Amino acid sequence: MTRTIRAAAWLTMVLSAAPALAQETQFEADLRREREHIAASCGAFDIKTIGGCVYTLATASPFHVALGSLAPQNGFAFGLAFAEHYTPNEAWRLSWNADAVAAPSGAWRSGVYMKVIHTPATAGIAVRPAGSPAPVVSIGPREFPVLDIVAQTISLGTVSYFGPPDSSSQAGRAIYGERQSIVGASAAYPIGGAGRFAALRPALIGGVHGRFVNIRSASDSSVPSLEQIYDEQAAPGLTDQRAFLELREGIRFKPSALNGRLRFNYLVSAQQFRTSRETHASFNRWSLDLQHEIPLYRGVSSTGPRAFNGPDDCAQTTGSPACPPVQWSRNRQGTIALRVLLDASTTSEGNQVPFYFQPTLGGSDLNGERLLASYEDYRFRGPDRLALQESVEHVLWGPIGLYLLAEQGRVANRAGDLGFSGMASSTTVGVTLRAGGFPMVNLSFSWGGEGHHIIGAMNTGLLGGSSRPSLY
Question: Which end of the chain has fewer CB atoms within 10 angstroms, the N or the C?
Fold first, then answer.
């Protein structure tokens, strides 16, 4: 273990080495500071310093070790990440992230991510006559317009398919391999104004992406390959995959109530997937994601993604790229969370939603999100999906937390077949590790209708970093 850490520290220091010049550029200065930081954290290898060295190697900038779990059944990946920032003036912030990782299974992912953040100046100081009352000002979280530009490719060797919604079964499991490339841009634009509408903290969402998917046979001889037991009717899109143009529009609301004791994150969005007419695979998707968070203690901030960060960033503010330190105090933190998730797809006559773009329930999905965790990964798959989640999480000590999660859900071929009756259910108890900006680690035990499922995973991005593009 010590040799592995020492090798990673040496490699990162070599990559961050830069010649000393009379006048450093920003990049050269960042490399020098990283080299000094690594030397200070990893200079002496003993039990007491290993934790700090690992944290530095995993979160340093501009280079750090990239690690995390790929899609379920594809293993744990290691590689290298790059993150750099540039501030041309007070109105703009630019950041670049790039990473490449590979797993022993042969699965891999590489990507380049750019963020353009507009930070307009706030209103200046106003001078008022003596004795005039001060204006009433509502102070809340400030959000900025953000443009995301992405180019990413992922290759997965094993993904399970259990059949269409009306005949899905454990005995019908088959596997396939998938490679998907995504190129495009998306934006979030907060809507200003005053009054009750502004209190909802609305933001417009939009994006355009090209998606290039290739489905291939699986190499595991112990499980049938997808094309051996399913045809085009049971797995639409199996025989022909063409390039897709994906358009997305939506609106997000993130208000709070009861002086911050109840927080909302509502997203309503629409996607249009367009491809060659010959494939009969174009479709539309409508999504509703309603998240509710109830902090158990006041003054506790969310540990979720921050829009101004790339996946390899863990900054707390737009003004500083520094990651937060690991908290070892016994501060009380906890939340109750409720979520409702609905995906509904529509097609024109003769078209079908390709199976590789259909959302799933069971274990974790292609994006690593847990939904009906007690079931096998990708257990239920269909064009339409309804899921409910209820959870309670509380810090045990320092970065270690304990959570209890209840889930219900179902998939269908038609949105009209969805409902709250006949839903599969799952219960989970788990432990989380949220250590500063280190990727979140999650270990859980789940039980439900088809047995139990133990899942251990590490996020593919730094804690506080934005999510990568969805694979469906």
Answer: N
- SS3 call for 182: strand
Q: Specify the 3-state DSSP secondary structure of 258.
A: coil
Please tell me the number of Cα atoms within 13 Å of 298 on its side-chain side: 4
pLDDT tens-digit map of 303-348: 678 888 999 998 888 777 788 888 776 667 889 999 999 999 999 8
- In Å, how far are 3, 40, 54, 62, 76 from 8, measured between CA atoms? 9, 15, 9, 15, 17
Residue type at 418? L
Alpha carbons 350 and 31: distance in angstroms, whole number: 56
* Global pTM value: 0.87
Give residue for tokens 């007690």. 374
CA 91 to chain centre: 27
Residue pair 266/299 in contact (Cβ under 8 Å)? The answer is no
Q: Compute the distance between CA of residue 290 and CA of residue 301 in angstroms, rounded to an integer.
A: 19
Phi/psi of residue 125, nearest 5 degrees: -75, 130
Question: Who wins on pLDDT, 122 or 84?
Answer: 84
Q: How does DSSP classify residue 236?
A: T
Residue 226 and residue 174 in contact, taking contact as beta carbons nearer than 8 Å: yes
Measured from the Cβ of residue 237, the count of other Cβ atoms closer than 10 Å reads: 21
Give the torsion sign (CA, 74, 76, 77, 83).
positive
